[in-house]
Amino acid sequence: MSLEHAILVSLLERPASGYDLARRFDRSIGRFWTATHQQIYRVLKRMAADAWIVGEEIGQDGLPDKKVWSATPAGRAALIAWLRAPVQPEAVRHELAVKIRGAAFDDPAGRAALVAEVERYRADHEATLAGYLAGERGDFPDPDVLDARESLQHVVLRGGIAYERMVLAWLDDVLATLRDLDPPTRKATP
Fold first, then answer.
1. pTM for this structure?
2. Per residue in 11-44, pLDDT tens?
3. Distance (Å, rounded) from C-alpha 6 to C-alpha 35?
4. Torsion sign across C-alpha atoms 132, 138, 144, 146
5. Eight-class DSSP state of 142
6. Rounded to whole angstroms, how far apart are CA atoms 35 and 41?
7. Residues 68, 15, 86, 161: is their CA dihedral positive or negative?
8. From the CB of residue 81, how many other CB atoms can be counted at a distance below 10 Å?
């Protein structure tokens, strides 16, 4: 997937300025595709040059004008062509998994450091899950009354929630396994 396709989806959902798109990426699209503000603005220029989007200057009281972007028919056609193309399975590259396998060749002190790293990694995923759940409560308070667009947005979010729960369960298993390898030593009582 390219950033262009993620932007087209967002603009077809609702026209937006570059700043608004960046906020959407930070808040919701970023759940499955990340982009910096600079990347978004650079790609918007390219998409405008390709006639996939068009910008309209909007005046603002007391603020500089802003450009609100909308997808053009050519942009929609490009998105449709991409939607209909086959998707290749993504290759998994997981540095932490390699470190976990490599821990067999480290000593207990090294594995203790790995436990701390896995705990940090787990805390990041726990925070991501909490953000997804908060977003779900805010964006989909009544999942039984969603239109087609909302239903598809929600199913993607549910996939993110399920993924984070799976990662957390795996990390709990990793931590238990690492701790079983090197249980804390107990001082003998006289």
1. 0.79
2. 999 999 999 998 887 777 766 777 888 999 999 9
3. 10
4. negative
5. -
6. 10
7. positive
8. 9
In the chain, domain spans = 3-84, 95-181
Would you identify the CATH topology of the domain 3-84?
Arc Repressor Mutant, subunit A (1.10.10)
Task: Tell the residue number behind the tokens 């990426």, with chain if given.
Answer: 25
Q: In the chain, which ranges are continuous DSSP H helix?
A: 3-13, 18-27, 37-49, 73-84, 95-102, 108-139, 148-181
The rounded distance, in Å, linking the Cα atoms of 88 and 78 is 18
Residue from 88, 92, 91 nearest 1 by CA: 88
What single letter denotes the amino acid at residue 154?
H
pLDDT over 80 (residue 123): yes
Sheet with 53-60, side-by-side order of all strands: 16-17, 63-71, 53-60
Look at residues 188, 185, 168 and name the one whose alpha carbon lies nearest to residue 176.
Answer: 168
Residues 6+ apart with CB under 8 A from 60: 66
Q: How confident is the model at residue 89 (pLDDT cuts 50, 70, 90)?
A: confident
Task: Return the structure tokens found at 8.
Answer: 């087209």
| 53-60 and 16-17 strand pairing | unpaired
